[in-house]
Amino acid sequence: MFSSELLPVNIAGQWRLGGGDAYESLYPATGEPIARLNAVSVADVDEAIERAHHAFMTSGWAQKLPHERAAVLHRVAHLIREQGETLAQKQRLDNGKPINETRALVASAAGTFQFFAAALETLEETITPSRGPFVTMSVHEPMGVVAAITPWNSPIASEAQKLAPALAAGNAVVVKPAEVTPLMALELARICEEAGVPKGIVSVLPGKGSVIGDAITKHPLVKRVSFTGGTTTGKHIAHIAADKMMPVSLELGGKSPTMVLEDADLDHAVSGVLYGIFSSSGESCIAGSRLFVARSIYDEFLTRLAEGANALRVGDPASEQTQMGPLITAKHREGIERYVELGVSEGGRIRTGGVRPHGNGRDKGYFYTPTILEGLTNNARISQEEIFGPVLVAMPFDNEEELIAQANDSVYALAAGVWSRDFKRAWKLGRAVQAGTVWVNTYKQFSVSTPFGGWRDSGLGREKGREGIFQYMEQKSMYWGT
Ligand code: NAD
Question: Is 251 a catalytic residue?
Answer without folding.
Answer: yes
